[in-house]
Amino acid sequence: xxxxxxxxxxxxxxxxxxxxxxxxxxxxxxxxxxxxxxxxxxxxxxxxxxxxxxxxxxxxxxxxxxxxxxxxxxxxxxxxxxxxxxxxxxxxxxxxxxxxxxxxxxxxxxxxxxxxxxxxxxxxxxxxxxxxxxxxxxxxxxxxxxxxxxxxxxxxxxxxxxxxxxxxxxxxxxxxxxxxxxxxxxxxxxxxxxxxxxxxxxxxxxxx
Length: 208
Known about the structure:
By secondary structure, the chain is α+β, with helices and mostly antiparallel strands. It has helices spanning 22-40, 115-118, 129-138, 143-150, 165-181, 184-198, and strands at 3-6, 47-52, 65-73, 79-88, 95-99, 123-126, 153-154, 159-163. Helix 3 (129-138) packs across helix 6 (184-198). The relative contact order is 0.14.
C-alpha cells in the first residue's frame, strides 16, 4: 500500500522553533523535496530525480532515486481538479501521491526557468551526493536558486544539475554567498560545488 500524503500536515515541522520529533522532520524533508522537485519541473513530464529513497529494507539503505511527476490531466488529456504529485522508487517499489501542495512551504511552481532550459540549451554539472545535499541545504532560503538544483537528475555516477549559461552564473554567485554563512561541516562540499560550476564558465570568467 502506497503513501497518500497531505503535505499541509507537515507545515511548520521544519521551522527552527519546531519541537517535532526527528522522524517527523526527516519525512517532512523527504516529502517536501519531492514537492519542490515536482513543482519546479514541467507539469506532466516524468523527472528521474536525484532524490534518494528514504527506506531501509532489511536495515540497509535503499539505493533507489525517486521518479516523480506533477499530474494535471487524466489519461484522456482532460484537466483534473485534484492536481497531485505521483512518486515512486524503482528499486524498492515504494510509491505514493502527494496532495494539497499548492501554496505549501515547498511549492516552487511560481519560479520560472530560462526559456533555453526547456529547449535543451543546457550545461550539465555532475555532483556527488554529498555536494548535492549540501547545496540544497545551503539554498533553503533562496527559492529561485533552490529550484535550479532540486530538479537535478539521477546520473550514472550521481546527481546531474542542468543549467542554462545565465542560470549557471546566478548559481555560482548564490552558492558563494551561502558558503559565507555555512557551518564548517558544509564548507568543503560547497567549495567543491563552486569549483565544478566555475569549470563551465566562459574563459573570461564572466557570469552573465
